[in-house]
Design a protein that fits this description.
201 residues, 2 domains, two-stranded antiparallel ribbon, 2 strands
Length: 201
């Protein structure tokens, strides 16, 4: 039987992507937020600001998805950004769930060109993943643990070919927020052991 909404995979993807973004943010400490690894690199705090501003701009102006919140939290701290982005992205997710299948194929303006809403949304997910990758590099430079994002990491056991576990820090946004307001949860990480962590050690 055909799927009544063939575009539901996009909303499903956004639901997991917002959790991945929040999970990476949560791995930083408050004192890490202004760490700048190079003169022209963003700090973790600036990445959080950019994510909130950029996602609000794309969703509001290109897709007509406007969350009823200020673009940024009034106080810029690690926890307030977690709470703010969770609320804003959660509202966007609810609005996306309400869109009919035909909405995704409709056209919209992407800067100076016309594109379908599905095309713009896919680029939005890729944009967020790009910045999340930059943040995991900062976690490495700071010596912080790196939990799974899409699969194993060096901290969870290394290369996929060695069949390491995938260890997510949190399994839902609700679990993350509840834990972070109490100081955070840190599931144990086995590390790679004696196995190499790259294909070219």
């Amino acid at each position: 039987m055909p799927d009544a909404d063939p575009w539901s995979f996009f909303t499903d993807a956004y639901a997991t992507e917002r959790l991945k973004t929040l999970s990476v943010w949560s791995a930083f400490r408050e004192e890490d937020l202004r760490y700048r690894c190079a003169e022209r690199a963003r700090t973790p705090l600036e990445h959080m600001v950019h994510q909130c501003v950029s996602e609000d701009t794309w969703m509001r102006n290109m897709l007509g998805i406007a969350a009823p919140f200020e673009v940024l939290p009034l106080k810029e701290s690690r926890l307030t950004f977690l709470l703010h982005y969770a609320a804003a992205s959660g509202d966007r997710l609810e609005q996306l769930h309400e869109k009919p299948a035909g909405w995704w194929t409709g056209g919209t303006r992407f800067f100076d060109v016309e594109r379908s809403r599905a095309w713009v949304f896919l680029r939005r997910i890729a944009h967020s993943a790009h910045h999340r990758g930059q943040l995991t590099v900062l976690l490495r430079l700071l010596g912080r643990p790196v939990y799974s994002t899409y699969g194993p990491s060096a901290d969870t056991g290394g290369l996929f070919m060695h069949q390491p576990p995938t260890i997510y820090r949190y399994h839902s946004v609700e679990e993350l927020l509840a834990a972070e307001t109490e100081g955070g949860a840190w599931p144990p990480l086995p590390g790679p052991g004696k196995q190499p962590v790259t294909e070219r050690p």
